[in-house]
Amino acid sequence: MALVLRNGQGNKNAYKTLVGAEYCGVKVEHVKEFKRSDKTHLFLNGHVFVRRNRLGKVPVLETPEGPIVESNAMARYVAKLKDGSTLCGSSVYEFAQIEYWMAFSTTEIDEVLTRWVYPRMGVGVYNAFSEQVVIDFMKNALHSLNTHLARGYKYLVGDRMTLADIVMTCDLYLGFTRVMTKSFTCEFRHVEEYFWNLVGQPAFKKFLGEVKQVESLPEMEVGPKCKFFLQYEVIDAVKRQRKNQKMDAHEEGGRGGTNQMTEAEKIDEQKLEAHEAEGVNLSGPFLGACVV
């Protein structure tokens, strides 16, 4: 059975596996006609896709042993398939360094970028103060990466391409093409040189094409998910206010006041509960991917 990678169009997480396979000489069949609507249908009405990934996410790599999910895990699998491949390092120490930079890329680059990009795409609620906090985190991460590369390193570990470089470049790709303008990245000259050097190599160009840096921050989009979050941000704020009022009333009750809800407050509480029952829970896991 050949390796089959299923994902939607333009998924930078899928590029990690595809570029890694290109360097290793491993054949991967790329099925990119996999639309979100198809995923929803399969997840809700069938068991085929659920067996591949119970979270209903793409990309998914199908192997003879079974499916693999999560982009870094898929990239590791492909990198270890070929005997003699140095993508995972040539020593235990190099392997540990590669693991470090992959973790750094995931937690300090990718997770921060999604909190910058998604609200501007209408996925979540945009907040100017929160965005500035995210930008500061991004600058701190890029400063750390820039300092490392300033020592004259062409690659993150050793003197050759490794899995750490593939993962880092694919994660930076989101920033360079979405929100990190030239005026932002010019402060990190070594990061710029590193990124443009790697995306110019044939294995990256095959899947990423000609990469162009975003010229300006994208205009704010208000998508359906953003409207949901706006609605429930208001509901959540009102519920917090109600809780604070009850606490104040309880304190007043201890001094001779009353702790009873008025009829109007009861009606408002019922409306809030009805609205909340119609949508999603604010405390759901998706909120973690957004800045509110």
Q: How is this structure best described in words?
A:
This protein has helices at 12-24, 36-45, 48-52, 71-81, 92-120, 128-149, 163-178, 182-185, 189-199, 202-208, 224-253, 263-278; strands spanning 3-6, 28-31, 60-63, 66-69. The protein has 292 residues and is mainly alpha-helical. Strands 2-1-3-4 form a 4-stranded mixed beta sheet, covered by helices on one side. The longest helix is centred in the last third of the chain and has 30 residues, at 224-253. The protein is globular and about 75 Å long. Residues 36-48 and 278-292 have low confidence and may be disordered.
In angstroms, what separates the terminal alpha carbons? 45 Å
Mean pLDDT: 80
Rounded to an integer in angstroms, the radius of gyration calculated over CA atoms is 24 Å
| Topology as a string of helices (H) and strands (E) | EHEHHEEHHHHHHHHH
Q: Main sheet?
A: 4 strands, mixed
Using DSSP, what is the number of strands? Answer: 4
Strand order of the largest sheet: 2-1-3-4
Shape: globular
Strand percent estimate: 5-15%
Helix content: 55-70%
Quaternary class? single chain
pLDDT < 50 stretches: 36-48, 278-292
What would a concise description of this structure say?
The protein has 292 residues and is mainly alpha-helical. It is 60% helix and 5% strand. The longest helix has 30 residues, at 224-253.
